[in-house]
Amino acid sequence: MSVSPLEYRYGRKIIKDIFNEESRIKYMLEAELAISKAQEEFKIIPSGSSSKIEKVMSLGVDPKRVKEIENEVKHDIMALIKAASEKVSGMDYFHFGITSNDINDTATALQIKEFMPYLQNDLVNLGSSLAKLVSRYKKTPMLGRTHGQHASPVTFGLKMATYLSEINRHIERTEQIKPRILVGKALGPVGTAASMGTVGLEVSKRAMSILGLGSEIATGQIVARDRYVEFVNLLSGIAASLEKFATEVRNLQRPEIGEVMENFNPDKQVGSSSMPSKRNPIDSENVCSLSRIVRAMVTPEIEGSITWHERDLTNSALERFTLPYSCILIDHILVKTDRIFSNLYVDEKRMMQNLLNSPLSISERIVSELTLKGINRQDSHELVRKASMISYDLRKTFKEALLEQSITDYIGEKELDEILSPVSFIGSSEAICDEILREALKHGKQQ
């Protein structure tokens, strides 16, 4: 019976297949093969040795057999070596001059290398969905909110542009990080490659080149874990952005706000087992929940980077969770977030209604207008503050309260009525949206 929710609930099969046992064996054999080929080139092992590994790969190695042997020998790589040697005879130079983590870490780099295009594509797809919202709603005014309270107007397009801007930066980060994380090694048990004589470093570089990876240089037995910490931190940062976006959807979907809503199928979808009227933002809530798991992976990965001497096993078990789980879950919630925003219902009428029903949201504009007419900025602020407090406490309209403060000494009543309209007080919102859209176009073309 399945225990991990990844097996039956979360994650795309195409991503989970990168990290399953069969794929792991394939990547480890690819690492062994590349190292063997490099050793042949440098005449460390006899020519033709690598062809034995190629034959093993064509025949395949059964993960169940590897597990059977591991139960006996209590060592995963030795189990693979023995299982492979059962397939093809004469494997005399298989795994020569290297150690387990040369294979483990190089295989991990190959897994991440295969995963990265999916991650980048997910980000580009989400960016595309956000860009459509930015373009469509860049002139659509709505209430801004700070501290959970009504603030000056923004546009819905500008709100989406702030999200698109984050995605643009995440796309940059995923490209910039590759040389530092897509790295393997073939330098032996303490990082000297001593069994390969004086050419060991060159063998390692050549083997990684065959695999399309960078080569670790100064290390102990394992690839330096600051690389993995940076990678998991990248995924954590993306997860934080996704939770931020999804939290806003959840807030704006609250009935008392009602400005956006997740797509809901009224013919079949059920919102609650007890209250059939409900339409809950379940996808956004799911994104928030799972993003916390991704971010939680940072702490064990950091702890696992602290090992004794040239290496110990304190990183090993935890990385069986941190790396595959982080990758599978970040892909899952990126795809889900894209679905949320590509099908988002936007209620422009409700946005306008909420904005017009919040006259105090224009207070910033009045302060600015008074200041531009020659009133000291602090005096302007105090006049509008007093009017605002009167409007709150005495239930007077904002205009009535402003008139009580003799605002007509500086601004005529007709002009005041124009200023009190929040619709046009959106500043550079459209220009900002257009600039972020140009950035997004550039990043989309890079993929």
Description:
By secondary structure, this protein is mainly alpha-helical. Among the domains are: 245 residues, Fumarase/aspartase (Central domain) (Fumarase C, Chain A, domain 2, Up-down Bundle), CATH 1.20.200; 61 residues. Helix content is 64%, strand content 5%. It has 19 helices and 6 strands. The strands form 3 sheets. The protein has a two-stranded antiparallel ribbon with strand order 1-2. Strands 3-4 form a two-stranded parallel sheet. Strands 5-6 form a two-stranded antiparallel ribbon. The chain starts with a helix and ends with a helix.
Topology:
Elements: H1 5-8, H2 13-16, H3 21-41, H4 49-59, H5 63-73, H6 76-87, H7 100-137, E1 141-146, E2 149-155, H8 156-181, E3 183-184, H9 200-211, E4 214-215, H10 226-253, E5 260-261, H11 282-296, H12 298-304, H13 316-342, E6 345-346, H14 348-356, H15 363-372, H16 377-394, H17 398-404, H18 413-419, H19 429-446
Parallel strand pairs: 3-4
Antiparallel strand pairs: 1-2, 5-6
Query: What is the terminal-to-terminal distance?
Result: 40 Å
The major sheet is characterized as: 2 strands, antiparallel
Identify low-pLDDT runs. Answer: none
> Average pLDDT, to the nearest integer?
94
Q: Return the CATH topology of the domain at 98-265 and 276-352.
A: Fumarase C, Chain A, domain 2
Radius of gyration: 30 Å
By secondary-structure content and strand pairing, the structural class works out as mainly alpha
- H/E topology pattern: HHHHHHHEEHEHEHEHHHEHHHHHH
Strand order of the largest sheet: 1-2
Summarize the amount of helix as a percent range: 55-70%
The named CATH superfamily of the domain at 98-265 and 276-352: Fumarase/aspartase (Central domain)
Name the overall outline: elongated
The CATH architecture classification of the domain at 98-265 and 276-352 is Up-down Bundle
Using DSSP, what is the number of strands? 6
